[in-house]
Amino acid sequence: MSDSSLPQLKRVLRIRDGLAVTVGIVIGAGILGTPGLIAGYLRDPVVILGMWFFGGVMAGLSTLMLAEMAAALPEAGGKYVYARHAWGDTMGFVAGWSEIFVTRGFSGASKAVLISGYLFMLAAGTTMVPDTVFFVLTGPSWLGDIELSWVGVVALAVVLAYFLLHTRGLEASTTFQNVTTAIKVVIVLAIAAVGIIGGTASAGAGAPLISSEATAGLLGYALAYQSISFAYYGWEDAAKMSEEVVDPGKSLPKILLGGAVAVMVLYLLMNISFLSAMTPEEMAGADLVAREATAAVFGETAGLVVLVASLLILVSSANVNFLGLPRVAFGLAREGLAPRSLADVDARGTPRNALMMITIWIGALALTASFETLIRFMMTVAITVDTMVLLGYFKLRVSRPDLVRPFRMPGYPVLPAITLVLYVAILAILIYTQPDLAMGAGLMLGAMLVAGVITTRRNAASS
Asked: What does pTM read for this prediction?
């Protein structure tokens, strides 16, 4: 537990706040931006629904393990806390900074890119995100001209707007989150009902279950799982704010498990809706399947309403990146694993310097305007780090048997072991099918490991 003399956060979040954070960050860019990609990879309604169900099961199993660690170690920072307690400061450094730089940084940027793209769709009255809105900046002679997308520029503006919101403090940002999450759940249920009730797609009326046009073999499943795991990612984000949750031992398991189950049910309903209204072939490559499915049933005006609703969903989802990530940086700084200035908390309870750093990084990534590349790289890194963190669950069970655990994962040790084996198998498939991407992710994690070793040795020498 952190020294009481160090900066502390206030316990103000209730179960409903935590559920809003969980549902808020999970339901967003994934369910809106990936169904068209996944349909293109698989082209089989049964397999598509099966993969979404499997993704929910993996999120649920992971949540059970994480809920035990979160309730036992209710400190700000989430996974980095559990990695640090299990494996030491170096691996805590890797877990924390990988979330900041990759898993959550890339996630926030991808959401900003989608928000920007959908704004362009709304303004232009098109059904696809424009891919030709570029302009050129003349750089210095050694750099040359720089080609930028207006989608990326508007995405950067979206990021800056979130920064301004969160400088107003936790109360303002959580109120915003609670309201937008309530709106989001209503919208998602409405979209699901529209497709299920009104859908007439041939996919639900005898269409072939398997198409030869699906992405070949294991690679198709790997690509689909990366997109689906991205859609579920964030099930653990409430744990980053453990230090701000009232009665975390009882509240955190309810928040984490309740959020994971709610998201899986909503995702399955959404995909049943899509497949009731469109065939996988029609879904493939669509930038916003929810709009296309609704328009197919009720016309373009209804599709336009869904586009606006999707923007509201994304606004809620992206907000949580700016809630959770500064707390990760705060926790790292407080333990000496990041510059101490990132632990500074302003009068409104916001880790202001950490928020500013996160905004700069997410804004820079958003300028790339590349949704699919961002999520594929992000999930390769995320699954690697999560495997290490979940392995730490077993380490803590052995090395800290005296640790007070208000919640214990049922089925120990068999169920946690099955979860870990599945993670290792998924990681192996991703490496085998996408070696270049895996190499890039490995190099980034290797650099973080070296930086972690240097930082922890420096801290040890100075103490």
From this structure: 0.80
